[in-house]
Specification:
about 140 residues, alpha+beta, Lipocalin, 8-stranded antiparallel beta barrel, about 20% helix
Amino acid sequence: MKTKLIFFLFSITLAIVLISSCNKDEADDVVTDPRDEITGNYQVTDSLFMFGSFDSIETFVLLISKDDSDKNKINIINLWNDGDSYYAVGSGNFYSIPSQNVSGPYWMSGSISFDGNKISYETSGDVYINKGNGIKQ
């Protein structure tokens, strides 16, 4: 009789443990977008090099936002303090800026990376290179 009671209690305990371990945590239902970490405003300093020589430096606010049409894209707004919007493709902390028209017959491409609350980028075109870095506000 004692063996049956012990077996019964063991079976009940095992069933409770198995059932409770199958419950989903609420955190499992939350889907996060890794781009959330990098979106926001950055105070950046941009250095312009023309024909290989330093030309000028400028400080401005650069906005990084998620592109709703593609989970691998971000929007780069106000690059070079021009108010325009460009895009980059990638994931995590590194994004490539594919060739895009910037004004008139000019094109640019480059890369952008994030390290915690820091941003750095480099873009280049026909005769110029821009290098920028900054801190998230």
